[in-house]
Design a protein that fits this description.
Blueprint: H1 2-7, H2 21-29, E1 37-40, E2 43-46, H3 50-63
Antiparallel strand pairs: 1-2
């Protein structure tokens, strides 16, 4: 996951729900009970689904005001 995001030039913050109670609570509040979950914009991708991740990154870039610079 981290390697793909880095390769795509996407900055990210990784949370370890085993060590971070707040991250665990947020995961549960979003209705998820499994990891990994990657949030890109308003989209959540469960597991490592490279195609879904790349599609979400492309959509996020298209909507991002920084994409025009």
């Amino acid at each position: 996951m981290k390697e793909l995001l880095s390769r795509e030039g996407v900055s990210f913050t990784a949370y370890n729900v085993d060590e971070d109670d707040g991250a665990y609570d947020e995961l549960i509040a979003r209705g998820w009970r499994t990891v990994p979950v990657t949030i890109i914009g308003d989209q959540a991708i469960k597991g490592f689904d490279e195609r879904a991740l790349k599609d979400a990154i492309a959509g996020w870039r298209a909507r991002s005001p920084r994409s025009s610079s």
